[in-house]
Every structure is written in structure tokens, then in C-alpha cells.
Amino acid sequence: MSFQTADGDQAELGYWIAPAEQGNGYGVDAVETLVEYGFEQRGLHRVEAGVFESNDASQALLESVGLSQELRQREAVFVDGEYQDLLRYDVLAEEWE
Which of 38, 48, 76, 94 sits most deeply, having the most CB atoms within 10 A of its CB? Predict the structure, then answer.
């Protein structure tokens, strides 16, 4: 799990969950904790995350905690021998509950 500050008021969220641990709620807990920290403790305005189009589980995780898909970068990454779209998700401080 990482949380990189792009500049003073926004950050990018990244995470990797071991296959054996997926589905246990650890990702949801970690993402919620980091986003909450970013908004409440760091005073961020915006948090974003990127996910490959083929990663349905990560898309569902981001959507379940309140991030919305804002952008599709067509064929932006080369993964496992083929180009895939990269989906960008975000949430603003005013939208976070």
C-alpha cells in the first residue's frame, strides 16, 4: 500500500494485495484508512488511483469505498503481451463521508 503526494493538495493511492489474502476486506480497510488520513490529517483536496481494465476486483474495491471512475486512458499500458486501458478513479474531500 502506498500513498504518494503529487503536490500539496492531492495524492495517488496504490496497493497490491496478495492473492491468498484477497476477499478478506483488508484492501477496503486499508484504502478507507489512507483516504481518511489524507483528507482529515493531511488536508488533501483530491485522492486518485489507477487500475488496469482487466482488474475487476480492484475496480469494485475503489467503487465500494466511494471513488468514481473519471478517465479511461485507452491502450495506455502493455501487460501480459497486450495493450490494456488504464482506468483512473478519484474522490474529492467534499465527496468523502
Answer: 38
Query: What is the C-alpha to C-alpha distance for residues 44 and 16, in angstroms, rounded to an integer?
Result: 23
Pairing relation of β-strands 10-14 and 46-52? parallel
The residue segments making up the domain with residue 27 are 2-95
pLDDT 10s digits, 26-69: 999 999 999 999 999 999 999 999 999 999 999 999 999 999 99
37, containing H or E segment = helix 26-40
Cβ contact 52:24 at 8 Å: no
In the chain, how many domains are there? 1
Coil, strand, or helix at residue 26? helix
Residue 17 exposed, middle or buried by CB count within 10 Å (0-12, 13-18, 19+): middle
